[in-house]
Amino acid sequence: MKKNYYIITGTIVRVACGKGYGLNLEPNATAKCVRGRWKPEKPKCEIQPCHVPATEYGIYTMPTESGHLMTASQVLGTPGIGHGDEKELNETDPIPNGQVIHFSCEYGYNVQGPTNLRCWLGEWAVTSMPECVAAPCELPLLHGATYEAGYRAGLTVAHASSVNIACEAGRSPPATLNCHLGRLQPTVHDFCRPLANLSRPRPTSEYQSGSDIVREDISELEPDVDGKTVTDCGPPARVQGTLIYRDGAEVNGTVIMEGYPHGTEITFRCIASIMGEKTTWKLICEHGDWVGKSFNCEELEAQSEELLNNNSCTFRNEEPHVVSFFNDLEITETVDFPAGAVIVSRCSDIGKYAMTGSQARKCIGGSWDGAKPTCFGLNQENDYAKKPPTILFRHSQGPIAQTNDGKLLVYPGTVLHMECLWMRRFGNPKWNVTHYIPDPERKYPEGWTTDPGRDSQLEYRLSIMGAVKEDSGIYRCETPARQSHQVEIIVEDVHCPPLPIRRGLVANGLGTQLGTEIRFSCANGNALLGAHTLVCRASGNWSAPLPVCESVECGEVVQDTPLGEGERRPRVAVVSRGVGGRAAFSCPAGWALRGPSETVCLPAADWARPFPVCTEVSCPALSPPASGYVLGRAPYRAGDVLQFHCNPEHTLHGRPILVCQDSGRWSDKPPTCAQACTYPGTTISGRMSSVKFYYKIGETVTFTCEPGYKLKGAPMLRCLKNRKWSNAIPLCAPITNFTSSDSLAMLNGDIDAMLSDAAIFPTDVLKTRETPAILTPESYKAAMTRVAATRLLRRAPIELYKHRISKVNNLLRRGNER
């Protein structure tokens, strides 16, 4: 059950504990939620203890240190363990989790397997349980006698076996040595004794095989001929997983087979385990025998695994087309699993992909065992190249489904077509079928498909008509290129448990057959808590627990989103608190909403996340235009103003003032500065077409004169790229002798004045009959001139202009006569 997952009052739960844990309730008992408390008590999963196993001839002991659990390495390195500092355990005694116990055998038996066992999650963390086996006997070095049948000193004979001994001349009697529980009978003092010493009493000391031997009394184990005989030791028994040192020098892998002289010291050192622990022990050769106690490196290896066993494993599926399951639930996100958890994987489509790696993996020691599974596409995904063939499934009259472990489950009575994809021009593929129950008489129709809409040059079909249990088996398609792909089919009548009826819950069906899909809704206007759709899976389980209908309302919107610099929480207005209800967010002026503008009340009585935040509006800093500058400093908040200016002899193109808006954008594009010509000046009795401080490069101005004056110079000036005008300003000189052409010039001057004063509008042009439907710039200017001339002539006919000219001429003539 997930942490902080709340249970509705009245709910009855049945709890199952994981491996190594036991329930504190009676077996198969349930717990009920009553007014916020569990009855009879809150279910808990507690770590299970271990029980001392029953081992014939075995002795289990545990350190007497109360309240302190000892690890295997501590047991191996603690002096006195196995003697007076341990208490003997009885069979089935409970051992707490993590405690290490020691195993030994009764007299005459040797330990086979680990000597230290650690309890972990109700089980003994060892690869195999220890046993007690009858101790063998080692043949001693003889003096005055020889072994028969090829036996020699140093060899080991099994329990209950015998060896014949022959005496040299002058010694008697011969004997047969019998091995019984690690002890040879009779002793070396009872046979082949010198005839002169036959009356010497034999020693009475006895020694158990594998027990600790001290220096004193060793002389009694060998015949005393001259009182000074010292014998060598044979090669020591090898222990797997160790390095061997002789008198401090490594001899691992080069252990000599001849004898080791008296006093030789052999050191065994276990190779460092996973946890870095090491164990060493020594054996010393004393008068032909190795003295000391040997250990087993497997104890440390097992302990290393035990210490890691409790680590959890993280699973993240990063492989495409691989689907993994845990307890029949698909894993769709990164999850931590406890030790011992097993996940099962398959390809998303077992007909189109093939899997390599381990199908089932177990969490052991903080990592997953086995090989990571991967799925690779077959020939359909590779343009039918040299890859195993793709198998397509088509079915009718019954459902099919893929199992979690990559098999195809077929409901009885289903018609299943399996189409092996292979290019027909390269030959015919072949179907091979291996049934679980061999039946050579069971045959299936196969051949190139002829169904409408299918590709008869690509799909080689095998059909199971009305599947029955006997059709279960492995179906393998092999191409002429010897590439193959197989599918394991199980024909089984799978049904999910009937769904109980709950008040207010409406289902669109009651079927339980494999593949059945049931959709739920609430009849009482309440919210549906849980999955809206359940599907009967191949495992015989529904895809999710049965949902319930509850009256749900969301509370206040608790905004707990962490705030950064320049952020604040937005205002919230709840529109409706029912499931599906909404709450809107807004920010004050100068602040912008970052995130969703509203949230929705979910069926779990919580508002949908994430919540937005308000960030202070700011506009990006703008660089000054080339040959210009900006008035204003960053940061620029909503409402701030930027003013653009140009350097002398430059003109501004665009808006000189920009405003930072609430959207975080400027009100317009930044302007630019371009080179310009300054005001050229004016002429007396003349007019300019445009008067301003700066003129753009390429811009023109035209000059005209008042009536009675004549223009001398260029009538039009152009602003050049060097910021200078193309000509000097023209002059307006008085006219001294008027002619008819002068009257026309005077009329033209009045026309230009009327046009420059904007006395003529476009609508005046359109009213004239002579105006064409489509005006070019030249025809438009001509039409404007025509309208102006017409108006002037209506006011004063051309004769008036001629009369005015004649008056001027008369006045000028009289002046000349005087």
UniProtKB/TrEMBL annotation:
Q: Keywords assigned by UniProt? A: Disulfide bond, Repeat, Signal, Sushi
Show the PANTHER family listed in the entry: PROTEIN CBR-CLEC-78
Q: Give the intrachain disulfide bonds.
A: 105-132, 522-549, 587-614, 646-673, 705-732
Check the record and name the SMART domains matching this protein.
Answer: CCP
Q: What is the lineage of its organism?
A: Eukaryota, Metazoa, Ecdysozoa, Arthropoda, Hexapoda
Answer whether the UniProt record assigns the keyword Oxidoreductase to this protein: no
Please name the SUPFAM superfamilies in this protein's record.
Complement control module/SCR domain (SSF57535), Immunoglobulin (SSF48726)
Signal keyword on record:
yes
What is the organism of origin for this protein? Diatraea saccharalis (sugarcane borer)
Which Pfam families does this chain map to?
A: Sushi
Q: Which residues form the Sushi domain?
A: 1-47, 74-134, 311-377, 494-551, 552-616, 617-673, 675-734
Protein name per Swiss-Prot or TrEMBL: Sushi domain-containing protein
